[in-house]
Backbone:
């Protein structure tokens, strides 16, 4: 057994070449510390606020949802390979493994008996995880909730939005049919409620829904202008609008059928959108629309 501190932990994990990982949290730099993800047979993670939902989605695209398991109460951190393992306090995050941020303490074990015991413990954790989230659908539903929590935290500057390249459409992993809203709109003159008027000066944009529509805040809407004949506008590029707030009766025109008003605010941050709307993506939408 060897005591590990600072960057020794990262080096030990690289030597270990883990095929099994159980950690509370996963960060977006996970592949820096586990570069050979093809060797990763199973990972168990807690789908709670410390885990970055984008990191889990990226991991799923790399190794498949069948190799990812969710266990809400997981707090253990272990990396198990064929001839060694690392256990201790370090999550699969830059904070935990860079050796430059949080102070972590781990041990590297090589004894056959210890590895056998660790594998037994890991298998028991996996069984518990399978009971909590038995299907890919249930995992994606939980991850969708986590993504919305992260969006709210970024909007309110509780956590910082990472300055990473925006995800491409090909890399996007939908978590549900309503992962984001898709809306057509036509510019109109309408009267806002007093609540909306109070924040009108800090509105980036707004989009309107019918009163029967279920609309959640902390979600993205893909918005596209339509023509007078209600067909998608060929030259107006689709764009993203982040829903910071929803006003059930934000529009008070009696003759207007869409009184529910969803708003993006200037004074709040926004998370990364689901994917980048490049010229090629916008062109694809145009071709698909008609």
Residues:
């Amino acid at each position: 057994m060897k005591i590990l501190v600072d960057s020794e932990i990262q080096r030990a994990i690289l030597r270990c070449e883990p095929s099994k990982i159980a950690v509370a949290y996963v960060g977006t730099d996970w592949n820096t510390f586990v570069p050979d993800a093809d060797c990763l047979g199973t990972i168990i993670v807690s789908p709670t606020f410390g885990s970055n939902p984008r990191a889990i989605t990226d991991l799923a695209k790399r190794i498949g949802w069948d190799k990812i398991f969710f266990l809400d109460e997981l707090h253990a951190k272990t990396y198990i390979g064929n001839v060694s393992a690392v256990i201790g306090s370090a999550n699969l995050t830059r904070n935990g493994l860079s050796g430059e941020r949080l102070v972590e303490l781990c041990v590297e074990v090589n004894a056959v008996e210890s590895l056998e015991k660790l594998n037994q413990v890991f298998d028991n954790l996996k069984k518990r995880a399978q009971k909590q989230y038995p299907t890919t659908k249930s995992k994606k539903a939980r991850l969708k909730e986590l993504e919305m929590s992260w969006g709210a935290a970024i909007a309110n500057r509780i956590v910082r939005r990472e300055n990473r390249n925006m995800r491409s459409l090909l890399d996007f992993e939908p978590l549900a049919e309503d992962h984001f809203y898709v809306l057509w709109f036509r510019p109109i003159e309408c009267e806002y409620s007093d609540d909306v008027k109070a924040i009108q000066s800090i509105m980036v944009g707004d989009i309107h829904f019918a009163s029967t529509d279920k609309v959640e805040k902390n979600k993205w809407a893909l918005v596209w202008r339509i023509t007078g004949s209600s067909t998608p506008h060929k030259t107006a590029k689709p764009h993203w609008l982040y829903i910071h707030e929803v006003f059930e009766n934000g529009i008070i025109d009696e003759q207007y059928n869409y009184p529910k008003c969803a708003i993006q605010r200037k004074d709040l941050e926004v998370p990364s959108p689901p994917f980048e709307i490049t010229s090629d993506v916008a062109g694809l939408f145009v071709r698909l629309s008609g």
